Amino acid sequence: IQMLQWCWIQMLRWYRTQVLRWCWIQMLRWYRIQMLRWWLVQMLRWWLIQMLQWCLIQMLQWCWIQMLRWYRTQVLRWCRIQVLRWYRIQVLRWYRIQVLRW
């Protein structure tokens, strides 16, 4: 009976250690998967933020360039109109002077 009890106790200890080892391994696996998942989410989030920032910068640069082009064309148009007015006034003045002299 003593021998059977001792064997039974040894078998239960061994079984308990195997179960605990298995539980420990499962817990570590789960933890590792969670850590990898967290790391992947963080990496994807960082990448997405970088891409969005890059796209936003590109879009803003494009808008800025378009606005500057539009502004430049407006300024050039205004300058051309002013030069033409001034030139017309000068021509009319010269013509009037010539007519009056004649």
Stretches with pLDDT under 50, minimum 5 residues = none
Beta content comes to under 5%
Tally the helices. Answer: 1
Total strand count, please? Answer: 0
Overall geometry: rod-shaped
Taking all Cα atoms into account, the compactness measure Rg is 43 Å
* Average pLDDT number: 93
Percentage of residues in helical conformation: over 70%
Q: How is the biggest beta sheet arranged?
A: none
- Run of helices and strands: H
State the end-to-end CA separation.
Answer: 149 Å
Structural class: mainly alpha
Description:
With 102 residues, this protein is an all-alpha fold. Helices cover 98% and strands 0% of the residues. The protein has one helix at 2-101. The longest helix has 100 residues, at 2-101.
Write the layout of secondary structure elements.
Blueprint: H1 2-101
Task: Give me some keywords for this one.
rod-shaped, 102 residues, mainly alpha, 1 helix
Outline of this structure?
The protein has one helix and no strands. By secondary structure, it is an all-alpha fold.
